[in-house]
Amino acid sequence: MSELEIKAQSHALINDLEQHGAYVHIPKSDHDYATTTGLRMLVLRHLVQESDGLYRACDTEYDMLRYYANSIAHPPEL
Fold first, then answer.
1. What is the pTM of this model?
2. Do residues 44 and 32 make contact, with C-beta atoms less than 8 angstroms apart?
3. Which residues of 25-51 are buried (b: 16+ CB within 10 A; e: fewer)?
4. Whose CB has fewer CB within 10 Å in the chain, the N or C terminal residue?
5. How high is the mean pLDDT in each 10-residue block of the chain (78 residues)?
6. How far apart are CA 20 and CA 65, in angstroms?
7. Is residue 19 included in any domain, yes or no?
8. Could you give the number of structural domains in the chain?
């Protein structure tokens, strides 16, 4: 997935959460900055790898990524 695709999906998810009343902290009030920084941290921690401008989860880190994803998963109350 390209960085642009990640940013588009991230922005859409954040908007959906906010529309359902969730507070989402966006550093510097900048969605682009927040996504770029988060992605960079995942790469530095070897949870995600980048190759030719495309990002993917590292094969050996699915369990760790799933753990973190589950720790913040909160279905919106409709």
1. 0.81
2. no
3. eeeeeebeebbeeebeebeeeebbeee
4. C
5. 96 90 90 94 97 96 93 68
6. 25
7. yes
8. 1
